[in-house]
Design brief:
- By secondary structure, the protein is an alpha/beta fold.
- Among the domains are: 8-112, ATPase, nucleotide binding domain (Nucleotidyltransferase, domain 5), CATH 3.30.420.40; 120-208; 219-344, no CATH class.
- The chain is built from 21 helices and 7 strands.
- The protein has helices at residues 38-45, 61-70, 84-87, 94-107, 120-151, 177-207, 212-215, 223-233, 242-248, 273-287, 295-304, 311-333, 341-344, 351-354, 362-368, 374-388, 403-407, 414-427, 431-437, 461-465, 470-474; strands at 8-12, 17-24, 27-35, 52-56, 76-78, 253-258, 261-267.
- The strands form 2 sheets. The chain has a 5-stranded mixed β-sheet. It has a two-stranded antiparallel sheet with strand order 6-7.
- It starts with 7 loop residues before the first strand and ends in a 29-residue tail after the last helix.
């Protein structure tokens, strides 16, 4: 049995040399270094048969991974964005990084959030695309430089595409001809090289990557975007659906939720930034004035109509995400693109949507004519009062008798008698017992419909309902007669002359 068969190796990749830590649970077996060349990797790992090999993703992790696979290993490539324990370590060093990678890989490999490296053929094809992108960026920088130089002397060049900008040389002021002559010469060379790369991409799609033809169906998506999309995702079976592919390209929002706080953040911007930038450029074209009518364009314009400070930017990014989902579906299912697929789809069978066109009941229609506003509440109250024949003032509690005032008038009213008779019939108790239980204080026998007159020991209706003058209601007591100033309460100290209420 090999002595390293149970060991895990953590590698901290460097520019010229790399440091590796041999680790078993709880014990560091040893350290070694190797040169960052294919021969150096072969000498360090051939014949060792380590159980696991872990490293961080970086500029050279791709070819190191492929070299280790040729030796029979299945290396674990960690995602640096998820390893804050390494990047934020106060005692960061090559050995500490390799040691921590070995410990995490031994405990649980999923803690490293492994990433997938493309094959060598796709990596080489992607290198050609990055070369073209570097030329395009340099051309844009030179065009911006020439325009700024012309603005400095009061001239302004006409707008147009970057590939046709070389024809604006004759519009440059004569005083700037010595400065811009060499820049225009470089622009002509850049245009020729970019066109050569475009022809290379077309031949690559026809010969090596025919699956990019399905992606190239969408108007607004050219050979560069379709080929880059296919090269970045490599295998559609790695993703469950198009939404997962869009998340892989960093086109979904980030999230920061804790308790009742759930922030609205921007997109994650993970994955291949080159492909994400191409998809955003395609979204600009689809939603722009030159875009063709399609479901994606209509959907993006609806997002723009919502308004807001950044409605257009959000609509463009959302359209780019939806475009990634569409391209993935066309590729994985090998389907033909239909620009107006949703317009050709039959009506939905959702019951809620089917019932939306049905006429509403009469009650709902009447309620719709009375908006719930403060000014209309009074009118609705008056309309309801007029319909049942009652006095509108009886429904108010601020300027007239209320239900509480009716209860304070005693048991002599017809309403109180009717209530007592009903309760007597239900409970079987005499009406006088019910009157005592309800708190009624004497008065004429029930049923004569005469309200009791105020007297000693009986509170007046004016004091109970607060319907009389303010001075009388404010200090009404047990001996109140309803006329003139009232004496102070028996259980309260006498009021001083300073605070005595005027008569």
């Amino acid at each position: 049995m090999n002595e390293y068969s149970t060991c895990t190796v953590g590698i901290d990749l460097g520019d010229r040399t790399s440091v590796a830590c041999i680790y078993t649970p709880g014990v560091v077996v040893g350290w070694f270094e190797f040169a960052m060349t294919p021969e150096g990797v072969r000498e360090a790992f051939e014949g060792k048969a380590f159980a696991k090999v872990a490293m961080e993703a970086g500029a050279q992790s791709g070819w190191v991974t492929r070299a280790l696979r040729q030796l029979g290993y299945e290396p674990i490539v960690a995602n640096p964005r998820k390893l804050k324990a390494i990047s934020a370590n106060e005692r960061k060093s090559d050995r500490n990084d390799a040691h921590l990678l070995a410990k995490l890989a031994t405990a649980d490999a999923t803690l490293l959030h492994p990433v997938h490296h493309r094959s060598a053929a796709r990596e080489h094809a992607m290198a050609v695309m990055h070369a073209r992108d570097a030329l395009v960026r340099e051309r844009s920088r030179l065009v911006a430089k020439i325009r700024s130089m012309c603005k400095g002397v009061g001239a302004r060049l006409k707008s147009g595409g970057a590939d046709a900008f070389v024809h604006r040389e004759e519009d440059v002021p004569a005083v700037l001809a010595p400065a811009t002559g060499g820049l225009f010469a470089v622009l002509r060379i850049l245009n020729e090289q970019i066109r050569a790369y475009d022809m290379t991409f077309t031949s690559m799609i026809e010969s090596s990557f025919p699956e990019a033809r399905r992606v190239n169906q969408v108007r607004g998506v050219g050979p560069v975007t379709s080929l880059a999309f296919v090269l970045a995702l490599e295998d559609p079976s790695r993703f469950g659906d198009g939404r997962t592919a869009a998340a892989f390209l960093g086109l979904v929002p980030r999230r920061d939720q804790s308790g009742a706080i759930d922030k609205q953040l921007g997109i994650s911007k993970t994955g291949n930034d080159f492909v994400r930038r191409l998809l955003v450029q395609c979204a600009h074209y689809i939603l722009g004035p030159l875009g063709h009518d399609c479901d994606l364009r209509r959907w993006g314009h609806k997002l723009m109509e919502r308004g807001g400070k950044s409605s257009k930017k959000r609509a463009i990014v959302a359209t780019a995400r939806k475009l990634a989902v569409l391209l993935f579906r066309l590729w994985k299912r090998d389907e033909e693109w239909k620009p107006l697929f949703n317009a050709e789809t039959p009506a939905t069978t959702n019951p809620s949507a089917a019932n939306a066109d049905r006429p509403k009941p009469a009650v709902q229609a009447d309620c719709a004519n009375f908006p719930d506003a403060t000014g209309d509440r009074e009118r609705r109250r008056k309309d309801c009062s007029a319909s049942d024949g009652s006095d509108p003032s009886m429904h108010r509690t601020a300027s007239g008798p209320s239900k509480s005032a009716d209860r304070s008038m005693g048991h002599g009213t017809a309403a109180s008698a009717t209530t007592r008779k009903t309760r007597s019939a239900r409970t079987g108790l005499p009406e006088r017992h019910l009157a005592t239980a309800n708190g009624d204080r004497g008065g004429p026998p029930p049923g004569d419909g005469v309200a009791p007159s105020p007297g000693p020991g009986t509170p007046s209706s004016a004091a109970g309902s607060r319907g009389g003058p303010p001075d009388q209601n404010r200090r009404a007591g047990p001996n109140a007669t309803g006329v003139g100033p009232q004496p102070p309460r028996a259980n309260s100290p006498a009021r001083s002359k300073k605070h005595e209420r005027p008569a």
